[in-house]
Amino acid sequence: MEQYYDILLHCPLFDGITRQELGTMLACLDGNILEAAKGSPVFLEGEPARYVGVVLSGTVQVIRDDFYGNRSVLAAVPPGGIFGEAFACAGLETLPVSVVAPVPSTVLLLDCRRVLTGCSQACSFHIRLIRNLLQGIAQKNLMLTRKIRCMSPKTTREKLMTFLMDQAKQHAGAEFVIPFDRQALADYLGVERSAMSAELGKLRKAGLIECSGSRFRLLNPIAEP
Amino acid sequence: MEQYYDILLHCPLFDGITRQELGTMLACLDGNILEAAKGSPVFLEGEPARYVGVVLSGTVQVIRDDFYGNRSVLAAVPPGGIFGEAFACAGLETLPVSVVAPVPSTVLLLDCRRVLTGCSQACSFHIRLIRNLLQGIAQKNLMLTRKIRCMSPKTTREKLMTFLMDQAKQHAGAEFVIPFDRQALADYLGVERSAMSAELGKLRKAGLIECSGSRFRLLNPIAEP
DNA sequence: GCTCCTTTGTTGGAATTCCAACATACAGTA
DNA sequence: TACTGTATGTTGGAATTCCAACAAAGGAGC
Which of residues 182-221 of A touch B (CB under 8 A)? Predict the structure, then answer.
């Protein structure tokens, strides 16, 4: 287990926990270590949603089958990443997704009830863990909300402007660098890359923005006299 | 304060808390009661994001100004509803939104640090409060994820099918009632109501679905021999 | 310099969506 | 019953988007 301490210490879930505390903590949480062979499942859809998973080595994929059985990959979780936390914390009775290990992997499974129940001995890092969990889910919440706001307009132009204004506010300035290339931005907004590229050209010609590569600048619309 | 106990007891944040515990709990949390006059702000954008708010009477609106100052209402929170929790729990330094009371309102403000720090006296309902908070945010998380999944396809038909298959899985059956009328569904998917209505007609003619009003049924695609 | 490869911009036709307007169906009420 | 208002379905033209294919602009490595 100690071999994975470095992974855990860099996992946001254990932020603020020291190496010394980690041992006590893991004992208190009574986690299971699962060695998953290549292709084998970690969770199966329909199982009780009780565990928060931490990837220690390898990778896991979160998998969803739709009503007709078509399978799609919702997420790939690298070492240090966590999965299943939203389902466990939301109190779902059964998992709506499966989790599989496409390569031989090691995961730590923490019983959510154990995590969320204060332990009998006053264990200060336990509170810390809960706070980290909450913070991670809340941050994801804000990310999802932002994405929905950017996807909601019906035209590509409006989607772009919504995204760019959002970035401008986040960077507190009209000039900023976005964390996407064109293809990734198009995927994020749910539009065609080529159409988006054309729309960016129009916005530039219209004098609303300047951009080169990932650097953007919003220009003030013409002030009315 | 006691006049608001019924509101609080029905607030998901205080689920599982008894009327007797409520008093002790509120004292422990040291919440502020704020009486907001009509049109007056509860939070201002840029303030530290430290409070979770609970609406006790009236309503509050969560307001966002974009980069150019255009204002939009993100949410209207009725009595018993909470607001600001995601910002506070995500650890944002400053609020990216404002909150105003469009009508005379009363809100309870809880310092998030106080909520998330275990109190010195072992206070069992404190843990309960944190779990409720976490559960609420996690559930919103799943809702947002679902919505993004339904909005992501590029065509109205695929959006509809994604939504309907999702509902079918949730109801664990091919027949189900959706919680939207046509206009609300179109807004949810981010498409035009008329175009969506037309697409529903095509899906019906293609033998993929049956529907009347809010009742839908997914039909099995023709089995291959 | 050169090639190879990736990223970004451009273009044209097909398909889709929007938009506004109207038709139909249905519930509630006088 | 007739009237009214709302929800839903339908239609046609304008506008937008998709899609595939190609052109242009860099960057890495030789």
Answer: 190-192, 218, 221
